[in-house]
Amino acid sequence: MKKLVLFVVLIALLGAIAACAPAPTPVPTAAPPTAAPKASSSSSAASSAASSAASSAAPAALTKFPFRLNWTLYGEHAGFFVALEKGYYKEEGLDVEIQEGSGSGTVAGLVANNQSPVAYIDSATMIQRVVGGMPIKAVAVMLQQSPMAFIYRADAAKPTKVSEIKGSRIAITQGDASLAIFTAFLGKEKMTTDDVQFIMTANAQAKEQAVLNKQADALLGYFMDQGPRMQLQTGVKMGWTRLYDINGTSTLSSAIVVNNDWVKDAKNQDLLKRFLRASQRGWQYTADNRAEAAKIFVKYASAFTEEIAKLEIDGTMTIIHSKNTTGKALGWSSEIDWKESQDLLVNFAGMKDPKPDVKVFFDNSFLSEAPYLPKK
C-alpha cells in the first residue's frame, strides 16, 4: 500500500514540473517558393552579359542603365561592348543594356520624348532636330569627322575627285540619310543633285548590289563599314574616297546624346558621368587592343567575322578626333567644330533658323579625363 501511495505522489510531482516548463517554439512553416522573374524576350545579348556579370559581382546592387544605339550593330560600336565585357560599367555600379536602334532620326525622337533618354546618334541629324525644337544635346562626340564616302569597285574607281562627280551614277535609297551631307558637298563645288545621276534602289542591300553589278558607279556610305564588309563577303575588291578627302566636307558625326529634362536631375547626372567614364575607358581599350576588341565584338554581333570587325574598328579609330580636339579626352568636342557643322548645313543643305549660340548643341562637362578609372 505504501508503494502505491509513493507512486501516485511521484506521478503528481512530474506533472507539476511539466506544467511549469515553457512551451516548445513552433517550427516556422516554409513559404511557397516564388518563381524567378522571366527575362524579357526583347532583352539584348548585351543585357544578358551585364546580368551575368552582376550575379558574380559584389553584393552592392547595380543600377539599370539602358543605352540605345543609332542602328544595328557595326564595328563602330565595339567600344561600348568592350566596356560591357570587361566589366567597366559594372565597376561604375551600372547594369548597362545596349539596345539596337533604327536610324538616327528615329532614335533622336526617342531621346526627345524620354523613351530612351541616353542614346547614340549622328551629330548633324541632332543639330537639325535641335533647331527644329527637340530638347536634346550631345554629351560626348565619339566620331569627330564624317565617315561618309563614295564606295565603289576598285576596278572601276569613280568618283575619286571633283572632276569625276558630274554625271556619276550614285546609288541611293528613298530618304537616304547621306543625302543632306552629299547636298552640302555638292553645294561647296557649286553643283546640285541634278549634276549626278541617282540610281534609286529599294534598300541598302540593293544599293550595294547596284555597285557590285556595275549598274551604279558608287554608293554613299561609311568608309569603315560597307566597303570592307562588301569586299570580304563577296570577294570583289572595293575602294572608297571620303567626301572630306575630296573637298573637306565634314560634320561632327556619331555622338552620345541625352534628354535635356532627364539630365537636370542630380542623380541622373551622376549616372551619366559614370556611364561616360566607363564608355571612354572601353573606347580607349578598343583603340589600344583592336584584335581583342574585334574578338569581343563578334560575341555580341554574330553576323560579323573578326576580320570584318577589325577592319571597321581600325577605320573608326581614325576619326575619333578633329584637328581641334587632338590631345583632348575621348568624346570632348570643340565649339569651332559645332559651328562649322551648323554652317555647312545652313549654307549648303538648306537648314533654316540656325542657333546663334552653338553651345545649345553640346556639353562637355560630364566627361572624365584619362585614364577614365572609377572614382574611389
Total strand segments: 10
What general form does the structure show? globular
Proper CATH architecture of the largest domain: 3-Layer(aba) Sandwich
For the record, the count of structural domains works out to 2
Structural class given helices, strands, pairing?
alpha/beta
Rg, nearest Å? 30 Å
Explained architecture:
The chain is α/β, with parallel strands linked by helices. The protein contains 14 helices and ten strands. It folds into two domains: 62-145 and 252-361, 3-Layer(aba) Sandwich (D-Maltodextrin-Binding Protein, domain 2); 148-247, Periplasmic binding protein-like II (D-Maltodextrin-Binding Protein, domain 2, 3-Layer(aba) Sandwich). It is 40% helix and 15% strand. The chain has a five-stranded mixed sheet with strand order 7-6-8-5-9, with helices on both faces. Strand 6, helix 7 and strand 7 (197-201) form a beta-alpha-beta unit. The termini are far apart.
